[in-house]
## 1
Amino acid sequence: MMDLCKELKPESSCSVLDVGRSNLSSELASYYRRVVTLGFPLSDFAHERIASSAKAEPAAHIVFDLNDSGKAGIPIAEAFDLIVFAETIEHLNTPPEIALYSLGKLLKPTGFLICQTPNAVALERRYHLLLGRNPFERIRSNPLNPGHFREYTQAELSDLGKAAGLHVVRHEFVDYFPHLGPLQAIRSALRGIFPTLRSGQTVVYGKAG
C-alpha cells in the first residue's frame, strides 16, 4: 500500500486521509506532510497499539462512523490529495456508495481514493461453495469489530464508484495475505494463471470528469 501511495502521489508535501488507525497510518505519517485518520474512537485494538508506538504519529484522529454518512457529512473541512480506504468497505452495514460519495467530497480535484478489500469470488470462496459451505463468516457480536457484512466483486466496485461520482483509474487483484496448507502450491499456481481468483483487490478511484 505504501508503494502504491508513493506511486500515485510521490510528493511528500501531499495530505492524506487514512480511514482507520493502524501501523499503515504511522508509515504514511513518516512520509507525508499531513496525515489524518478517521474512524471509531481509538481503543485498545492491537493494530492501534502498534500505531501508537511507531516512529510517526498522524496529525489528528476524527471520530466518525462511516455508516452514518447518509445522515451527516464527514466532519472534516479540508480536502486531501490521497484517501486510503483499506480493508474497511466490507465492514460497512450501509450502502457503500454513500460512504464513497462522502469520502469523494474530501478529495482534491486531482486526488485519488484507494480502496483495498477482499475479492468476493476468490478461489477459497468458490471452493467452499462447491463443498456446500458458506464461505463468509457470521456477523460478530462486537459492534466495534462486527466482521464483514458484504464483500464485493470487481464489477461491483466499479458500479459503486460510478454511483458515488468517481471513476476507476486502475484495478488489480493481489494476494496480500499468506495462504497456508497442503494445497498452497496448487492455489498459488491457479491464482497466478487466473488473477480473478486471488484473495484481495485494490481499486483506485479518481473524481469523475
## 2
Amino acid sequence: MLDPAIVQLLEEDRRYPLEAYVFVFEALHYAQSVLGMGAAGASEPAAGGQPAGGAADEEPGAAEHHVSGRDLCEASRRYALDQYGYMAKLVLANWGIRSTGDLGEIVFSLIRIGRMRKTPADRREDFDDVFDFDTALRQDFRISNPD
C-alpha cells in the first residue's frame, strides 16, 4: 500500500510521477550504502515531526548519515548510470528529472511532507546547477570492428 502522504503529494504536485520519488529514495540509499556518503549529523525536525539527516523511515536511534545536496546529485548520477546505462538520461527525463534542480524539488517536497530530513544548513538551492545532464549522463559508446 502506498504511503498516504506520498499519494497526496502526487495529487497536489503532478510535475513528477511516483517513479521519480522512488528513484530519489533509491539514490539516497545508494549514496549511503554503496558509496559510503553521509556524515553523522544534527537533527532538525521536518514536517510531520521527523528528525533530520536522511530518509524519514530510518529506525529511531539509528545513526543518521546526512547526504548533502551536491553529494545526492552525484550519487543520483552514478546510480542512474549504474541502473540504466546508456538510457539513464532518457529514463530520468521520462520521469521529469531533467536537471539537478529537479532532484532538489523532489527532495524538498519529500522534506515538506516528512518523508526525508534535512539539516539547518541544507537549502533547495544546493541542488541547482550541480552538473549538466547532457554531459554527466553520457557514457562513451563505441562500436569496434572485429579484426
## 3
Amino acid sequence: MRMQWSLFLNLLSLPAPFVWMKIGPEGYKYYGPDVPDIWILGAYILGKDTRWPPIGFAWKWQLAFILITAFCTWRYLRKPNKLLLWFNLCWLILFPLWLEIYSEGVINNSDGADLSVYPMPGLLLWAGMLGLHGVELWKSRSRVS
C-alpha cells in the first residue's frame, strides 16, 4: 500500500508547484508591471521562455525525473525488486539538489528581476515519496529480491 501511495504522490507532483519566485519591486521597475512571477511545477515552468535551451532542458529533465520515478515505482508494484527502490531513493535524495540548481539557474537568468523564492506544496509530495520509499526499504530489508 505504501508504494501505491508513493505512485499517487508521484503523479500528483506533475502539476504541483515546487517553487514560486515572486518578482520584487526592482524587477517591476526593470521589466514593467506585466512581468509574471515564475513557478517551477513538477512538469513545467511558468513565467519563463521555455524555448530558451537551458530552461527547455531543465523543465524536460525534471519531467523525465518524475516519470522515471513513477515508472520504477509502478514496476516495483508489479514485481518487487529492491534495486528499483534503491534507484528511486537515490533520485529522490538528489532531487532537492537538482531543484536548487534549477532555481539558481532561473534566478541567474532573470537579469535583475529581484526574485524572492518560496517553497511550495510539491516539496511535501516529494517528502512523502521519500518517506514512503524509505519505509518500504526498511520493511523489505529481510526479504530477498
